[in-house]
Amino acid sequence: MLTAFHGQALKTNNRIVMAPMTRSRTSQPGDIPNEMMAEYYRQRASAGLIITEGAPVSAIARGYSMTPGIYTPEQIQGWKKVTQAVHQQGGKIFVQLWHVGRRSHANIAGSQPMAPSAISIPDQVFGPLAEGGFGMVATQQPKAMTEAEIKATTADFVQAAQNAIDAGFDGVEVHAAHGYLFDTFLRLESNQRQDQYGGNQENRMRFLLETLQALCEAIGAGKVSVRLSPYVNEGFAGEDPEIVPLTLALLEKLQPMNLAYVHFSENISRYSVVPEAFRRQVRSVYSNPIMVAGKLTRQTAQSLLDKKYADFVAFGTPFVTNPDLVARFTHDWPLAEFDADARLTLYGGGEQGYIDYPAYEV
């Protein structure tokens, strides 16, 4: 876990990754990254790699209030503060490119949410309340995307990736997990299209593959990665009997692209336990770098590395309360617990519960 990683393009000081976590701390108006966010990521720059919270690639891509965009000049300038702070500490940082799809509301995104098909399920997101302030609001019925809107969305991702490089990021991670836009194209329940983007598995993968290929051409494959969650059912009505074979077929297509890594998110919200057989199947079709996240402990993370099921292990909430998580693992120091108080300050607010967690004192 503490050894360096030397990939074809991505090189890190250790295998410990700070997983992407929405914190909703941007400056308003404009969803602009700020000095406080730069300090938050700077404190955690000893991670081998930081993956930022999801950054919407356009206004319509938003699904949660106060999340940092990457589509305006002001947002790009704000992100430069973050990347400079991390690089000054010797860290590496990727931005997670995000389109929430149907998990949104017009009051947040500015227009009706988009999805592969006009299918909604009961869901809630963080947004403006009718009585004022912010809280959890019900999502809205989405509209089915036209092929022109699909092509335009790929273009939005390409522009966002180019913006990310301009902002100083070392690479980008496409969020294709957790019931957001790309994930809904991959699954039968949410994708009932009859065109080239729906129907069989090949068609359901098309949008994601076209977008990843376009990103590779724009900024280089070594700076592109993708997050998947075949065993997470968050954002869906039920389990998809085809998502695992589709994921394996997708990995076969990703293998020759030589991405920086493929990131599997597990064990969050509504999920199924990932069988070891799946990890073996993944390795049988995909030999390039793999990252795994999902309520890992130091022991379970090390086991994934030892068995070669993963090249990187990502931690979310442990990094919230332990900005020096790498040092705590290195020296076997105890971890500060992510407790009820930490959960209360996870989304929105100021410095409390964000940049005021201390490093371990010997």
From TrEMBL:
Its cofactor is FMN. One of its GO terms (molecular function) is oxidoreductase activity, acting on the CH-CH group of donors, NAD or NADP as acceptor. Residues 12-333 form the NADH:flavin oxidoreductase/NADH oxidase N-terminal domain. The keyword Oxidoreductase applies. SUPFAM superfamilies: FMN-linked oxidoreductases. GO terms for cellular component: cytosol. InterPro entries: Aldolase_TIM, OxRdtase_FMN_N, Oye-like. Gene3D superfamilies: Aldolase class I. Pfam families: Oxidored_FMN (PF00724). It comes from the Bacteria. Keywords: Oxidoreductase. Belongs to the NADH:flavin oxidoreductase/NADH oxidase family. PANTHER family: NAD(P)H:FLAVIN OXIDOREDUCTASE SYE2, NADH OXIDOREDUCTASE-RELATED. This is Alkene reductase. It comes from bacterium 19NY03SH02. The lineage of its organism: Bacteria.
